[in-house]
Amino acid sequence: MPEESPQRIILRVLRYNPDTDDRPRFHDFPVDAAPHATILDLLHAVKDAQDGSLTFSRSCRGGMCGSCGLRVNGAGKLACLAQAAPEVREGVIRLEPLTNLRAVKDLVVDFGPFFEHLDAVTPWLVPRAPGQPSELSRLRPEQLRRVGGAQNCILCGLCFSSCTAVTHEPAFLGPHAYAKAWRFLADPRDGAGSARLFALNATVWSCSAQLHCADDCPTGVDPAARIADARHALWRARATRAAPQAPKPSSTLGLRNTAYFYRSLKRYGKLDLRGYPARLGGLKGLALGLGTAFKLWAKGRNPPAAMPRVKGWRDVAKLMKAIDAYEAARAKEEAPHG
Amino acid sequence: MDKIVYYPGCIAESAGRHVHAAAMRVFQALDIPFDVLPELTCCGSVNIRDKSPLTHLALNARNFALVQRQGAPLVTICSTCLYSMASVDAALTAEPEMRRQVNDFLTPFGLRYEGGVTLTHVVRLLHDDVGLTRLRTRVKKKVNLAIAPFHGCHTLRPAALHPNAGRDDLEAFERLIEALGGRIADFGMKTECCGVHLLATNPEETHHMVGACTNDAAARGADVLVTASTLCQLALDACQGKSRAFAHQHLPVLHIVQLVGLALGLTPTAMGLDKHFVKPDRALRKLYGKAMAPAIAKRFDLVEPDDREPEVPLPSTPPRPSTLIQIRGTRPASP
Fold this sequence. Notes:
Structural class of chain B: alpha/beta
Largest sheet of chain B: 4 strands, parallel
Helix content of chain A: 25-40%
Order of helices and strands of chain B: EHEHHEHHEHEHEHEHEHHH
Largest sheet of chain A: 5 strands, mixed
Distance between the termini of chain A: 55 Å
Distance between the termini of chain B: 22 Å
Strand content of chain B: 5-15%
Number of helices of chain A: 12
Number of strands of chain A: 7
Oligomer: heterodimer
Radius of gyration of chain B: 20 Å
Strand order of the largest sheet of chain B: 2-1-3-4
Structural class of chain A: alpha+beta
């Protein structure tokens, strides 16, 4: 196979020095990229030969430590795993720091809020009993299967950066935090149980299912799926525990919405938009709902007064009831943390 | 290609009815025979799985079994419907034990699903099966506007459900718009979230997301924004200007089927553009000028009031499929 020659490309880096710059600016570095160079290789080449002040985070250079996250042509990647050649656009690769975090210098960002949000989910194992015997710490592989990819998180921040729920909802903890919470929720050894789960209820419903996190995660955590797991666990906790501190659908919009959606499908086979979402309750919801309902009515787009049912809706209801019964029986059998 | 099973989705059948009607008129105009199956339920969106993942699987498997009886592909105009259904199909295809469990619940109703349903987004139907070459020959009115292509989330993600990590789908949507005569006004937020799934639980967040996307598109000089999904069209149209963080751009938001209809020579009223929250008057003025029929022009405030023509009624049931030209075309080979 003939040797491929290095490719001359422009590395366009968003630079920022708080001591001298009023705002970030792009700076072009011409660099010869070897055939299988990574973005990290190119950053090192620039720092070594052109500008020693170029600042970026890195450590293992092998996709394990999570230090070198940045945006390559707008998409979050680990610099050590991203090959340079496929990223060239008209001779240029654009590099920017992660978003949703304040740039400290060049490509380095302040991970403070990222870790604060992580702390909020108690990101460590709380033993079931103090000094529990070591036998209880041994797990069979199938017991850890529920944890799934949530164990793999290297705290690289790519999910946090790409998530616009983080951008627009200050209370949203971030995909990494909910994934970490699930890592312990699904672990049979964890004794924090319901407190850990119920603490998520206030904010986990602010995920809009945009799925950037699922695609950007370099280690297969799939935070979006872990958020769905946590929401399902919240629902089941409400269903199977009579504990007064369990989140009640009457008090949480997220759970209320889930209950409404399900009831609607059981009754009609479709989502009943009459008065939705105002019917979820609350004065604010009512005001929003009435305003929107009036506007829709004025444009002839209001849902029909009588909600049509799908053909065969009785079968649909029977099917859903059969699954209800099956799941209720399963819930009774399973251990509380099973 | 034979007839399709057109799956409008719950939004299209109520608050998005104008897009539903536009889609049916476009299928008619393109001679695509279609049926809407009254037995098909909601896909469960991203909500049913929170209550019961098994119910999410079973409802969709039931839909798939019913669609397979028609021997026709399912075509949807809603990206979340496609995501919901495709994720169920992928799970059932990959896990025989899960499929067996779901089929145990379906068997009492004489139904069974063993995989193989064809799920298609209307963008891919137009791009792959109708084909851009054929579509160009049917264009009567080039939609010569700066068009911001809003892909949103579920047309492209998760990568596992889209060939080539969504690049194919991104290209298909934008080349489709160009084939209709549109000029792409590229903008960075085109693959970001409109926030529609938060409308019930955290509407302020939706408003901010809508504001961020429409502001970016407007800053790139877009005349209109075109979406691939009924849900995105609903949020981006209904929630514009509601966030205090972002100015109201008054950017008209069309679903791709509405744009296709305009390009095929159907009127803006037939495409339901008079039913939008953000009025498309300025964009239509740019597109048609005084060339519009007087009645339509009057509705969109382009000419002086004149004798009204009767309004084109929205069909409440799908038109009877007639013996029409079969659309030939092939789906791209799997990678």
